[in-house]
Amino acid sequence: MAATVSDSEITKSDKYSILLPTYNERENLPIIIWLIIKYLDNSGHDYEVIVIDDGSPDGTLEVAKQLQKIYGSDKIVLRPREKKLGLGTAYIHGIKHATGNFIIIMDADLSHHPKFIPNFIELQKKHDLDVVSGTRYKDGGGVYGWDFKRKLISRGANFITQLLLRPGASDLTGSFRLYKKDILQKLIDSCVSKGYVFQMEMIIRARQLEYTIGEVPITFVDRVYGVSKLGGSEIIQFAKALLYLFATT
Amino acid sequence: MTKLLEWLSILSAFFAVWYSLVGGYVKHKLIEENMKLIMISPIIFIILFGLYAVTVVLYRVLTFNDCKEAAEELQKEIIMAKKDLHDKGLRW
């Protein structure tokens, strides 16, 4: 019985630190924060939002400061950096200042909707998972704003990746995920890629290190403000990372 | 074992079987009668697998869920958020 008591105490003290790396997200930041607050206050979980702005010239940080005044510095934590550095280092920077025992990472551009966060948390609790990843490719998930070509590249790349790497997760390049804090730290330490393929390596390393991975279907609404990018250089980056992981993991 | 090594070991196992048939190391009437088919079987296999891949990928592209409702819901929430944040004194 003692175990049950301490379990519920642990549950009670669970805290979720949401990391929002931003670069020129002045338009989106207030809205994503408003949505996070709306859905997390409603779910009753303890949380904080850590904004890691990489010296955006558009004044994202100024807006973030205003938001901090409105919602309080216990909810909105600002950890800006001088200039644009890698995504991996942004996460490390965020983890250092995170007071939660779970870390949620998501994009600030409104393509990831905070309404799914309670689903991530529930699934994690149910199976005590190390990682919960959002997926656009499973029942109930999907994308909005993609043309045929974009869908073809996405599905084709996913098919080849599944075939070669058998990662045990359906969405490898997505970046809407929940991690146990210590596990995220270990994963980042074991990753070598930069840029968006970093997300793929994280999930492959998680499989390699035999962490448990769960999946939550998410809808992905492509950038409302700003331009979404998928060019030749992204595809080459992806192919390189795929071959690297194929040969080394 | 890395994924690359897994692939290489399975491919070489198949190659060994195929080569022993084609090279005449295993003798049987059935093998001799179907030699042409055995010779080209790797190519047939690759073509079939290619067809399978194209079919699966195209099927998944065509059935990729277009979450229109999610986009509409988000638009509504953006309007609500802007109004509420404006009322709270945010200017941006």
Can you walk me through this structure?
The complex is a heterodimer of chains A (249) and B (92). Chain A is α/β, with parallel strands linked by helices and 249 residues long. Chain A has nine helices and nine strands. Chain A has a seven-stranded mixed β-sheet, with helices on both faces. In chain A, strands 6-9 form a two-stranded parallel ribbon. The model of chain A is unreliable at 1-6 (pLDDT under 50). Helices cover 79% and strands 0% of the residues of chain B. The two termini of chain B are 54 Å apart. The model of chain B has no long low-confidence stretch (mean pLDDT 94). Chain A binds chain B through residues 26-27, 30-31, 34-35, 63, 66-67, 70, 110, 113, 137, 140-146, 148, 151-152, 154-156, 159, 164-166, 219-221, 224, 245-249, and chain B through 2-4, 7, 53, 56-57, 60-61, 64-68, 70-71, 74-75, 77-78, 81-82, 84-85, 88-92.
Provide a brief overview of the structure.
In chain A, the strands form 2 sheets. A 7-stranded mixed beta sheet of chain A has the order 3-2-1-4-7-5-8, with helices on both faces. Chain A is built from 9 helices and 9 strands.
Number of helices of chain A: 9
Low-confidence stretches of chain B: none
Q: How would a textbook summarize the main sheet of chain B?
A: none
Query: Radius of gyration of chain B from the CA trace?
Result: 29 Å
Shape of chain A: globular
Round the mean pLDDT of chain A to the nearest integer and report it: 90
Strand order of the largest sheet of chain A: 3-2-1-4-7-5-8
Compressed to H and E, one letter per element, the order of chain B equals HHHH
> Helicity range of the residues of chain B?
over 70%
- Derived from helix and strand composition plus strand pairing, the structural class of chain B reads mainly alpha
**Average pLDDT figure of chain B:** 94
Low-confidence stretches of chain A: 1-6
N/C terminus separation of chain B? 54 Å
Enzyme class (chain A): transferase
Keywords (chain A): Endoplasmic reticulum, Glycosyltransferase, Magnesium, Manganese, Metal-binding, Transferase
EC number (chain A): 2.4.1.83
Protein name (chain A): Dolichol-phosphate mannosyltransferase subunit 1
